[in-house]
Specification:
This protein has helices at residues 4-16, 25-28, 30-33, 97-103, 128-131; strands at 38-40, 43-56, 78-91, 111-125, 135-146, 152-163, 178-189, 196-209, 219-233, 236-249, 259-271, 276-289, 301-312, 328-339, 345-359, 363-376, 386-400, 405-417, 427-431, 437-440, 444-456. The chain is mainly beta. It has one domain: Porin. The protein has an 18-stranded antiparallel β-barrel. It has a two-stranded antiparallel ribbon with strand order 19-20. The N and C termini lie far apart (53 Å). The model is unreliable at 1-22, 94-106 and 319-324 (pLDDT under 50).
């Protein structure tokens, strides 16, 4: 039996479902992660270390369907102990940029630096197939901005992230362990004291997989990107962004089609009052995938966009932009198109609600959830186009006993509805020697809960 497609199908959801893994907000958003900092000349360092322990109800993200022709083994729960040291740094002027602009561009330094790194080790407890999945995750990145807030500037950035992730099949020789190396550069033009700005850049990303047979999905994506903003009020303005992406798979025997992706959007972002803000973006996306012997080069030609309404629980302060660390509630809708490992692409329609709460530097909370529909075109003659729905929810809360020590809790929920195309019990992945068909059921439910301690500066 060929299980090649079942891995690709499951992988496509692992890469797009935010609640599928135990996210650590303090690594993703510096509002949650940074403390008072350690100063060294013009640089400010933020070292930290966290320890978490928690429960995962469906570590392999498997379906509970045990029909004879569905290949998923049984659902397995896991207990996880995770230790994550991390560090970030930036030039001190980054936090003073608004004041620097108000006092004149000459107060701004010629170079701004922002960098971060982390290593995360997970020890897993459960049955033997769970405990064998212990792993390291690694991330490192940095950005250099030249001549910020000046009429002409430039930026260079790069990052690397390695994620360990099991597949829904037993064993450790066909995991979804993967990594991505990304880098880019751009030039910016800001005439009129920053009322108008425009950036033109280039970005390249190499995505690889560590285990067979998924190494055939390794690919390079190169993008030409541009974006602009024209402020007509201190905190409101027109927006524009566009990109052209070249997607090339590096293995000659890859089942995935090469292709190009073109997208352009225009919109408006504004602060209506000191409590209400909105964002609206709309545009068009067209893909140009080639046909190959394994996957039909289906293409998308349609709209993309985002709309969001945000209410600040505390009034936004006066100034050129809303500051970070403000409590807010946001509701929105997003439609986008993404390269896929099941077929050539998928589209996503997602409605979401989020709530950020910051209370006197002592308590922080982030609550968010959404309902999504993922639409896949025909992947093969046996697997027609189909939709799948996801419900996700994430809650993170942290109480800080001091400027450097905190207790936190994280809860994640994710559920997928929709087995596969044409009323099948899943995606058809192959047949045995007797001609019996086997399927991968894409429905699952997963609940995760963690409690942790964090020491940070």
């Amino acid at each position: 039996m060929n299980v090649r497609l079942t891995v690709a199908a499951s992988l496509s959801f692992l890469l797009v479902t935010g609640a599928a893994s135990a996210a650590q907000p303090w690594l993703e958003d510096r509002r949650f992660g940074e403390g008072i900092g350690l100063r060294a000349g013009r640089f400010e360092f933020h070292p930290g270390i966290s320890t978490e322990f928690g429960y995962d109800s469906n570590f392999f993200q498997r379906s509970s369907n045990q029909a004879p022709n569905v290949i998923d083994p049984r659902v397995a729960h896991a207990w996880r102990l995770r230790v994550t040291p991390s560090v970030s740094l930036q030039t001190v002027s980054e936090r003073q940029s608004e004041r620097g602009v108000q006092n004149g561009a000459t107060t701004m330094p010629m170079v701004e630096v922002n960098a971060n790194a982390f290593v995360s080790y997970s020890e897993l407890f459960g049955n033997s197939e769970v405990s064998n999945q212990r792993r390291f995750d690694v991330g490192v990145g940095g950005k250099l901005v030249i001549a910020p807030a000046r009429p002409f500037g430039a930026d260079v950035y790069g990052d690397f992230i390695r994620n360990g992730e099991p597949s829904n099949l037993p064993g450790t020789d066909h995991t979804f362990d993967r990594g991505q190396v990304r880098g880019g550069a751009g030039v910016s033009w800001r005439p009129g004291g920053g009322l108008f700005d425009w950036r033109l850049g280039y970005e390249a990303a190499y995505s690889y997989f560590e285990d067979q047979p998924y190494t055939a999905d390794q690919n390079i994506q190169q993008s030409i990107v541009t974006s602009g903003r024209w402020r007509i009020l201190p905190r409101s303005g027109f927006l524009y962004d566009a990109r052209y992406t070249f997607i090339r798979y590096t293995h000659a025997d890859s089942p995935q089609p090469d292709g190009d992706d073109l997208q352009a959007r225009v919109g408006f972002s504004g602060l209506v009052t000191n409590r209400i803000a909105f964002l609206i973006m709309g545009g068009w996306n067209s893909t140009f995938y080639e046909h190959n012997k394994a996957v039909a080069g289906q293409n998308y030609d349609g709209y993309v966009g985002q709309a969001e309404l945000k209410y600040f629980v505390q009034p936004a302060p006066e100034g050129n932009s809303a500051q970070t660390g403000l409590s807010s509630i946001a509701v929105g809708f997003l439609r986008d198109t993404t390269n896929s490992y099941l077929g050539s692409f998928y589209t996503r329609d997602r409605g979401y609600l989020s709530f950020d709460w910051f209370l006197g530097g002592v308590f922080v909370a982030n609550l968010q959830g959404g309902l999504s529909r993922y639409s896949f075109p025909a992947a093969s003659a046996a697997n027609a186009s189909f939709d799948q729905r996801h419900v996700d929810a994430t809650a993170f809360m942290e109480y800080r006993f001091s400027d450097t020590f905190a207790l936190n809790g994280t809860f994640l929920f994710d559920q997928a509805f929709g087995k596969g195309p044409n009323g099948q019990p899943g995606v058809l992945v192959g047949t045995d020697s007797n001609g019996n068909a086997f399927y991968d059921d894409l429905e699952y439910q997963r609940i995760q809960a963690y409690v942790g301690l964090r020491l940070f500066w």
